[in-house]
């Protein structure tokens, strides 16, 4: 990517990446679980998540960068003193140790970098592996219309089907499909997704249909 797209507050993005040289990112069930734990730590403060899938050697996310960040911060989030001092913190008196600040473009990028670096350390240390785990820079596409949003959701959920891991998105455990059709509490922005598809019935119907992931991937310029 010659000119990487900035992650600007308020915009929707399809973010995706793979292991360097196609190397597997997730080798065991606990690796998927660890990635999601780290995702909650680093990405939930700065982005709303609408769809995701974790495959053996790559992943896809559909997110919206938040206009403001409100979260309990750790000094370790800013390893450089200069970065920490550059942020103008506005403390909310009623919520101790919680801050809110306008999202800055470097802030969103930094949190994604923290996610990738933390997961790489998790994979590298036990196996004495060295070097990058993910390709750089990570890929991202800005999404500016509802049809595009719907197609990205379908593409993400059908990724396991396309790669031969299952026959229906419901059968794959490491995607947001099951959260979308479940009544259980979720941090996924499920109601917004259902609004794009009008209702759950239409959501299920469109996911039940055959999807040519290669064709839609070309349309999405993946």
Summarize the structure.
With 222 residues, this protein is α+β, with helices and mostly antiparallel strands. It contains eight helices and seven strands.
Question: Your description of this structure?
Answer:
The chain is of the alpha+beta class and about 220 residues long. Helices cover about 40% and strands about 20% of the residues. The protein contains eight helices and seven strands, in the order βαβββαββαβααααα. The strands form two sheets. A four-stranded antiparallel beta sheet has the order 2-3-1-7. It has a three-stranded antiparallel beta sheet with strand order 4-6-5, with no helix packed on it. Helix 1 (about 30-40) packs antiparallel against helix 3 and helix 4 packs antiparallel against helix 8. The radius of gyration is 18 Å and the shape is globular.
Distance between the termini: 12 Å
N-to-C series of helices and strands: EHEEEHEEHEHHHHH
Q: What number of structural domains do the residues give? A: 2
Instruction: Output the radius of gyration.
Output: 18 Å
Uncertain regions spanning at least 5 consecutive residues: 88-98
Q: Might you state the CATH topology name of the largest domain?
A: Alpha-Beta Plaits
Question: Helix coverage percent of residues?
Answer: 25-40%
> What is the structural class?
alpha+beta
Architecture per CATH nomenclature, i.e. the level-2 architecture of the largest domain: 2-Layer Sandwich
CATH superfamily of the largest domain: Transposase IS200-like
> Spatial order of the strands in the main sheet?
2-3-1-7
Q: How many strand elements?
A: 7
